[in-house]
Amino acid sequence: MHIWNTIELGLKEIWAHKFRSFLTMLGIILGVSSLVAMSALVTGMERGMKEALVAIGGLQKIRVEFQPLPVEQRHLRDQATGLTINDVYGLRNNAPLITKVSPIIDWRSAVLTAKGKSFNPFICAGVWPIAVELNEHVIQHGRMFNEIDDEMARNVCVIGTATRDALFGSPEKTGHEIIPLGETIFIGDQPFTIVGMFEHYESIQDKQVRQLAKEEPKIQTTNGTPRNRGWSGRQGGFVYWLKNSTVYIPLNTMWIKIKSGQPGFLPSIAGGPRLTTLDLRVANVDKLTPAIQQAYNVLTSTHQGIEDFTFRTQEDWAERITSSIRNARVSGGMIAAISLLVGGIGIMNIMLASITERVREIGTRKAVGATTAHIFIQIIVESMVIAFIGGLAGILTSFALVQSIAKLSPTDNAPVITLGSLLVAFCFSVIVGMLAGLIPAVKASRLHPIQALRYD
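-> structure tokens emitted (456 positions)
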């Protein structure tokens, strides 16, 4: 029997029982669409998490922080220098696996004021210009302050869009772009000139929502006093909010003009400012462990053996991302597999019922020369045709399902349908159809022609 003739017979059988065939395909349609939708959600989550990881420096970033002395060294606390500029130069000269070093003096309680408004940025830090590159910042307007600004301890700053929104107004509220270059803001009691502004950081989903909001007219509501939420909220994820809420000033400016005048601030006993943290960058993540060892050796030397420092990396976060994605894929795959299994059982039941109705037809075909293999292949092909059509319909349904999920339950990470997920779901549906047809095919192929012709 020619394969195309068999497929034609299968299509005719489906057309002859349209409603029954639709109900049979429904399980496959739901299984395929749920598998694709689950894969799209997980892929979107994975991309969003990885994008956030890159936004804070990626796995190549190492942070050096202060830690209390270990018990056996607490009698040496008066000799503890803390993190200093000497550590920076030591790492730059004696740790070849470390490509970038950025000293940081942080001021968590900083209050920024301008034009009668105030704002508490999440990060207000004195840094070197290299901090922009190390922390994956992008200057969209103006410039980053340079080495001369730092050496002269000039009162210049680079701000994020959250600071702009809070002190000068947001583009969403005013209807036009606001670029406050050259404006003066006060950090504490010190006036600073804005020389640069970072780009606005947000997830892909938030960017799409914002673009859509520009195109659609605003809806007036009476639910409370009208207010504008701006772009400075955390709906884009904590990482993006943190970067938007960053203010950088020169390191020496922070030390000489701000921190030195604060009560309780102590310079390092080695001279120079006592740093809050150090940010390091390695060229290759594969060299992360030996790079940390090099940094440990250098800092142990510059601190004269006193271990008042520790290292923090993004490895734990990366492992949590990997674990979350793996668990989501497994659980989602199991749910979709159950749906496809139910669809396969539906196909098997319908094919068994179809065989019961077609016993005399099968007997006639065997009587005129059809072999056992011909009957077996015919039933398998009919089952696979049902699954094939159901798989195609499931793929089409999955696009509508993903769009509905994205609208009804929006998240920071937009779902992403990939070609791979479509192929996997479709192939699984066809395989399920083939397996579901095995038992009916075996039953039909074993019918004896004489007994089948006598069947009433």
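DSSP finds 17 helices and twelve strands in the chain.
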